[in-house]
Amino acid sequence: GSLIEQLTTEKYECMVCCEVVRIVAPVWSCQNCYHVFHLNCIKKWARSPASQAEDGNSGWRCPACQNASVQVPKTYTCFCGKVDNPEWNRNEIPHSCGELCGKKRQCLDCPHLCNILCHPGPCPSCPAFVTKTCECGQTSHSVRCGQSTKIHCSNVCGNTLNCGKHSCTQVCHAGKCSPCQLTVQQVCYCGSNFKEVLCGSKEEFSDGFGSFSCQNICGKKLNCGRHNCKQVCHPQPCQLCPRLPQVVYRCPCGQTPLSKLLELGCVERKICTDPIPSCGKTCGKPLSCGSYEFIHTCESLCHEGDCRPCSHTSNIYCRCGFKKKVRLLGGFFLFLIAAITFMCDKRCNKKRSCGRHKCNEVCCVDTEHKCSLVCGRKLNCGLHRCEEPCHRGSCQTCWQTSFDELTCYCGESVIYPPVPCGTQPPECKKTCTRPHDCDHPVYHSCHSEEKCPPCTYLTQKWCMGKHELRSNIPCHLTDISCGLRCNQMLKCGMHKCKRICHKGECLIDEECKQPCIIPRLYCNHPCMAPCHPSSPCPMTSCCAKVRYAKKIHCKVTGIAAISIATKLTDLQLGDSVEISRLITKKEMKQARLQCDEECLALQRNRRLAEALEIDDNSDPFNIRSSGPKYSDLLKEDARKDIKFVSDIEREMRMLVEAVNKGKHTKKSHCYPPMNRDHRRIIHELAQVYGIESVSYDNEPKRNVVITAVKGKSICPSNTLTSVLDKEMQSRPAPPLPHYKQTDKSSGNSGLSKPLKEEPVIDYFDVQD
User: Which residues cross the membrane (predicted)?
Assistant: First the structure.
């Protein structure tokens, strides 16, 4: 009725094209599910690869019920199939012929055809009345033909069961009667065992001696009345006694007839218990331990009964063939059992099929070495582990699935179920809504991580040492260093912290180790001992260096130091002090400076200037302005590494020219880390070029930074390398050694040894 109404009102849709089925459109109806389709749509569907059945040979599948059909519909017929291309009649059902349906109903036992007009859908049940009997056939009733229910009466079935002896005791039922459930007792052929079986089963059969074999030794008395049957429980009568005189014709080994032995004087046997005469030869019966190629025989003399075990030995190998042992054969079955049970204690070292574990089986004979362990590695989701047997390669993807929605933190982005295990939360472009530690604007998006990214809002913060208020500092930075010295007073109360701006206390578990700056009592030089706030300065010799033409160590101690200290006021007023009276001759000799080549040259120039009446400040020969003055030590170092000096001078000249031609007033250049000698060369050359030079960092990464200042830095006319080249070309003779005159008061006269030059300390290298 629903199909008729939808087709008439044109509300029924084709499942292929999803369009409404018109009244005049050719259609096709499935005979299994009764869905209606456009004829052209079903033709296209039947030819498409998607409609083919799974086995590939059963035709095409209905889009609705998946029922396979072999033939593709070609013509437009009515629902009952009698009329092709039925015409539409306003008073009839669309796509029907208007005649009786006449199709066979679905009920298999209904002989009546459908008696309503041609219609879509299944035919209704048959309305005719028929007489049907119950299942047991004892009663009959009048029911509708289309009624599918079976008729049951309340009588006992009474049909004969499968055993043919008993009848069915069930109430009227459908189908065959159940097998007989009564039990019958049976006895075995030898009569020693009993069992119960169902009545009417095949096991109930009996041949008169019994019904089954118990597989034990028969044990019945033979016809001789003296021996028992040694066969397994059997259905036929027992055989004759094998020891009867009329049955035995040969000796026990079977090589000699008894007639010959009787001729030789053996006693004739009367009954079965009489012994069988022996021929005296070797038995020679084949033993069970032999094979087809090598047959082992009994080596005993002709005897009755079973043969003795074999005396031969054989090698028995373990299962894997690694070990062997020698064993008496003693019978084929015993040898076979020993060969099967013999195993060595060697463990297999081969890799299993997984490639991760070793076999470790004792006396292994396996060829594949399959791994029986569970894989247990983490799957791609990171939450579950692989539960398959241990295998090679990557594990499969996690099969677990969640049927809950997966959302971002704010809930704007959603992944709908099913959600595979390990799926990350969806990305969200909304601003993060989590609570933050600061009140600054939030610029990052919603995220699934528990911790938010650090706040990058620029703020003003004090440095760790409270030296200055720094600007443009990201909010998340807490420990800020200004780069200046700490300069906080230490616990000693004398020194200040020299560390770069830092966090926390200056000295936590350490004591101040800076040199003491308290002036000495006798020479006013600082103490220089490690800081000792609670103890007086130690009485040690002063190691401070003073400038008096040359740097010497202060060796004044004792009473002389006290006397010199009292004359300090005269020195400050400009007067001179005679120290020869205050110190001994030995101390005077130790404290007197030794003249060198430079001193003698200065004295000679001074005498020459006095003779020519030349002022010291004048430069008549343009000596000072003609070129720079390079020290002998610098020249000596330059000769050792002339390439390094030439590179340094080239970089300095380029730096000076760049700052003089450019807009900037200063320009700097940083040299890579180098040793102390190279740094000293750079410092001395920087003085010649008028360039500032400073050393930074600690060894071994200490380096030099030079800075050229506009208007102050110059490029000398003669470089150090050109000066050295001129000196090499002129090759002057080496100067004669100078000798000093000794003090007449000392009482010594004559020549003294040449002077030794004191070591030069790089004072520029301690700048920070």
Answer: none
Over residues 425-452, the mean pLDDT reads: 91
The pLDDT of residue 754 is above 60: no
Answer yes or no: are the C-beta atoms of 321 and 274 closer than 8 Å. Answer: no
d(C-alpha 167, C-alpha 136), whole Å:
13
**pLDDT greater than 50 at residue 751:** no
Task: State the sign of the Cα–Cα–Cα–Cα dihedral 15, 18, 22, 25.
Answer: negative
What pLDDT does 460 receive?
93
Residue 288 has pLDDT above 80, yes or no: no
Q: Lowest-pLDDT range, 151-165, 478-492, 612-626?
A: 612-626
Half-sphere exposure of 460 (CA within 13 A, CB side): 4
**CATH class, 632-715 region:** alpha beta
How many helices and strands in the chain, by DSSP H and E?
A: 13, 21
Q: How confident is the model at residue 594 (pLDDT cuts 50, 70, 90)?
A: low
Q: CA torsion sign, 200 to 203 to 206 to 209? A: negative
Q: Is 236 exposed, middle or buried (0-12, 13-18, 19+ CB in 10 A)?
A: exposed
Rounded-to-integer distance, Cα 725 and Cα 684, Å: 19
Any idea which residue has 């291309």 for tokens? 85
Q: Is the pLDDT of residue 763 over 50?
A: no
According to DSSP, residue 485 is labeled B
Contacts for 551 with CB less than 8 Å, ≥ 6 apart: 545, 758, 761
**CA neighbor of 591 nearest in space, from 604, 602, 580, 581:** 580
Q: How far apart are CA 7 and CA 21, in angstroms?
A: 7
What is the DSSP code string of 591-652?
A: HSPPP-HHHHHHHHHHHHHHHTT--TT--TT-HHHHS----HHHHHHHHHTHHHHHHHHHHH
> How confident is the prediction for the chain on average, in pLDDT?
79
Identify which of 82, 14, 67 has the alpha carbon closest to the alpha carbon of residue 44.
14
Task: Give pLDDT, residue 474.
Answer: 93
User: Around Cβ 363, how many Cβ atoms within 10 Å?
Assistant: 17
The domain ranges of the chain are 1-124, 460-497, 632-715
Per-residue buried b or exposed e for 153-191, using 16+ beta carbons within 10 Å of the residue's own CB: beeebeeebebeeeebeeebbeeebeebeeebebbbbbe
CA distances from 641 to 634, 638, 645, 724 (A): 11, 5, 7, 12
Two tokens, residue 580: 């020869």
Share of the chain above pLDDT 90, in %: 11
Phi, psi for residue 439 in degrees, rounded to 5: -100, 15
* Residue 276 pLDDT greater than 60, yes or no: yes
- Count the Cβ atoms, other than its own, within 10 Å of residue 285: 16
HEC profile for 548-568? Answer: ECEEEECCCCHHHHHHHHHCH
**Which tens digit of pLDDT belongs to each residue from 446-463?**
998 989 999 999 999 999
pLDDT at residue 207, rounded to an integer = 57
Whether the Cβ atoms of residue 528 and residue 518 lie closer than 8 Å to each other: no
Residue predicted with more confidence, 169 or 594: 169
